[in-house]
Amino acid sequence: MGGILFNLLFPLYQSILWFTLIWCFCRYFLSMGWGGIIKVIGEWYEPERNGMIMGLISINFQFGSVAASMF
Predict the structure, then answer these.
(1) Residues 40, 45, 47, CA angle at the centre, nearest 5°?
(2) What span, in angstroms and rounded, lies between the C-alpha atoms of 63 and 69?
(3) What percentage of the chain carries pLDDT values higher than 90?
(4) Residue 46 has what DSSP assignment?
(5) What mean pLDDT is reported for the chain?
(6) Alpha helices in 1-71 (DSSP H)
(7) Cβ pair 15, 21 in contact under 8 A
(8) How far is CA 24 from CA 3, 6, 11, 31, 32, in A?
(9) Cα-Cα-Cα-Cα dihedral of 30, 32, 37, 43, to 10°?
(10) Cα(40)–Cα(62) distance, rounded to whole angstroms?
């Protein structure tokens, strides 16, 4: 809910200071899902594949963030 709230606050402020603060809080709340992803990946895949799967998921997060910022 925090991520949604702070995403909705973006268009309400014009200064770079507020944009930066809102962005930091948004990313903070969105990062809370990372622990759950790690646990699920650890249980779904055998230990030999965990490194490759986590690498792919990490790349997906990075590319997704860039793509979302561009659009």
Answers:
(1) 110
(2) 10
(3) 10
(4) -
(5) 85
(6) 2-9, 16-30, 34-44, 50-70
(7) no
(8) 10, 9, 15, 10, 13
(9) -170
(10) 19
Q: Give me the pLDDT at residue 69, please.
A: 77
DSSP 8-state class, residue 29: H
Q: Is the pLDDT of residue 32 over 80?
A: yes
Place of tokens 């962005």: 23
For residue 29, pLDDT beyond 80: yes
Angle at 71 between CA 63 and CA 33, to 5 degrees: 50
Is there a contact between 42 and 50 (Cβ–Cβ < 8 Å)? yes
Determine the pLDDT at residue 47: 87
